[in-house]
Amino acid sequence: MPEPSAAVAVYIDFDNVVISRYDQVHGKGSFWRDRDKGFDAARLAAAEVDLHAILDFASSYGRLALTRAYADWSVPANVHYRKQLVDRAVDLIQLFPASGSKNGADIRLAVDALEDMGQMPSVATVVLVAGDSDYIPLAQRLKRMGRYVVAVGVAGATSRSLAAAVDELVTYDNLPGLSDRDADEVEEPPAKKRSSVKSTPTKDEEDKDTGQLSSRQATRLLLRALRILREKDPDAEWFNAGEVKSQMKRMDPSFNEKDFGVTSFSEFIKTRSSIAELEEDHHSRTVRLRPGH
């Protein structure tokens, strides 16, 4: 497996993932039936895809050098995802539907991926977010080009043949950190320690895009980073503090522990003691996810 310092390219067949997830939650064929009569907001919300979980997992293979998502972005089921993707610097590729023809995402995605790999020799890992068997030739070609190929697909909608064609297949349902709601319940450091915050913000205020992470967002970032590291290495319990910080920076480059009134990453970990434990000696600092999380 490539080192975490290597570059990663991510290609998302967005329609594939959204439709597969919707049908997984509401039953096979539900997406097309509901689209014809008009989507219900509650049903869309119940089948929402956590894009951050996908991209955060991809970052565990290395620095995200290229991320692209292919879809018809005018479709109502896709519209509310656009800001999330743009916020994560994902390049949105518009696919205009052609009457009576199959979705052309697989062809466009494959052409782009092969062209990109010819121009980007630094990319060691390619993450294909799709479960369609149409991607088997692409996966095989990428492996022949020396890339480590990972596929992320929705359970029940991922081809067994694709699993055999890639180096690693991950089911969307098993992505670490899919649910980070418990991060909202952990103890937060006192407001006075937040050097950039003059008063205790509300939950809604903390989620606004200010160009800097809120304390609550930083807590969720730490929690998800530790879960991802555990998922990647189930036999390990303690991780070097530098490795944890590097994973957090790959997930969100805006993270800086000094924004939260501390002078070191170790101090930042100590302020999140309800979810993480820090062990220090003269030679190293290691961190682990507190049991129960």
From TrEMBL:
Residues 177-215 are annotated as: Disordered. Residues 214-291 form the HTH OST-type domain. One of its GO terms (molecular function) is RNA nuclease activity. This is OST-HTH/LOTUS domain-containing protein. It comes from Branchiibius hedensis.
